[in-house]
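Q: Give me the 3D complex with 4'-phosphopantetheine.
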Amino acid sequence: MKIAIYPGSFDPVTKGHLDIIERSSKMVDKLIVGVLNNGSKNPLFTARERVEMLNEVTKNFNNVKVEAFSGLLVDFAKETNASIIIRGLRAITDFEYELQMAQTNRILKNDIDTVFLTTSLEYSYLSSSTVKEVARCNGDISKFLPEYIAKKVYDKFKKEC
Ligand code: PNS
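A: Here is the predicted complex, encoded as structure tokens.
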């Protein structure tokens, strides 16, 4: 059984992430969306909220499972029997960080490979941080996020104000 992990912060999940989830889930038997639960970042949504939101927007993908993880990605991959890490590449600016992470992960566990998918062109500019900035200034984020997620983001900012 071919198992892959698509790791990320997903704070929040965007249409760009969903595009990668949809395409990569067709390449493997099981895709685990790994939500990083990292105390050192200051996320807008808790890991539990991010898992819940991802569960909602991936409910129609039969072989996709969403799980939170903390610690090293390669340890989580081992625990879940995954042999592939999926990452999306938007632009050349992503490349240096992604290469560094993929090389480090391969040195840590050489039986786990990172596979990069180029994001679809319409999402090549998209990032969770930009979306949060637009929402914070009351801009329209409906083009970037599934409706369910966009509502959660607006609700969060309403609570913060
Ligand atoms: O979408 P993001 O926030 O860029 O995701 C980054 C992520 C979760 C893939 C990365 O931070 C990660 O895998 N962290 C887990 C900790 C780890 O294994 N670090 C060592 C990598 S060299």
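A quick observation: Residues 7-9, 36, 72-73, 101, 104-105 surround 4'-phosphopantetheine (CB under 6 Å).
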